[in-house]
Amino acid sequence: MKKRLLLACLGLELIYLYAGPGQIADLVATAAAGDLSDHAASAEVNFASDILVDLQESLGEIDWSQVWTPNQGSPGTLVAILDTGIDRDHEDLVGRVVAEVNLGDSPVVNDLHGHGTHIAGIIAANTGNSIGIAGVAPESLIMNVKVTDDRGRCDAAAIADGIVWAVDRGANILSISLRLSEPSQELEEAVAYAWNHGALIIAAAGNEGGSLPQYPAYYPECIAVTATREDGSRAPLANHGDWVDVAAPGYQVYSTLPDNEYGYKTGTSQATAHVAGLAALLYGIAIDGDGYGWVNDEVRAAIEASCVQAAGGGMGKGLVSPVEAVTLLKSESNLPPQPIPLESGSECWFSVKIKGYSN
After folding, report:
1. The whole model's pTM is what?
2. pLDDT at position 46
């Protein structure tokens, strides 16, 4: 079982680390990231207008439509997707990607694999635009943090570098649909750094069908996510165990693919994206109840405490419930104690800026 630790602040003196051909290329696909009015939904937006939304059965499995409103969530919540890259020009992702970096063993930052673009669509596909699909958190903005080669392979150093890069540029949520079978001190320190600077890491449990810990999901600061089928049972090959925190839909999930394509994928990667999207929605309504300067602990507590019982063991607290999570955050008295408080007396304040957007 995960150990709950008191974590000391690592401080801002940690230097940015770049691996291999890593190059920074901040970008704005449509509007400047500082002009969030171009990303805000209008009162007339209706996700039902997205012509492929009926294929997104995973949204129905978590009753997403009951919590989504045009102004739900916080416009500008930054979700860093550490993956195989993202096709930022996809018709349903235009305007969502505001910063990117290539830290993997690939000559390009774009997604030549398909996995990262699929994850991005689940989290933040444009909604109510009469094309494609609906994102779980369509008001969020995306950081494309490519940490793999073009076959989807990566190492602990690249993931750790990506975490630090994203956090130092204001990421609120890190979606890591990658897994390593061995622990890494560098990766563990990067995860702690992220938590102590207000970021929430959502990580995939893996698809080996076993119960052995996978990393970074196993680290206590991460929400480790396994996958469910449409009936709420554990998805085929989804890892499980007492180190897993929650479950989310991950079977035959429909989302974006490179070159304006769409398609189905199955796995804890897709489940992780659903939880990352939920976290992005919750960031917009969470209040810093304990006064330490961040809301990552409140958001995490709401996600975990609001889960419903899942069919089968090894799936942590159960299937995530957006409706119950929103209810918890809107009723401060119902919010449970936070599982991973900062060490008493530590202070971790920072200010970053991406093309006019400050956090």
Report:
1. 0.81
2. 56
